[in-house]
Amino acid sequence: MSELPFDPEVIRALAALLKETGLTEIEVAEKEGRIRVARQPAAPASLTVASPPAALPSHAEPAPAGAATSPIEEAANHPGAVKSPMVGVVYLAPEPGAPPFVALGQEVEAGQTLLLVEAMKTFNQIKAPKTGRLARILVQSGTPVEYGEPLMILE
Question: Per the confidence metrics, is the pTM higher than 0.70?
Answer without folding.
Answer: no
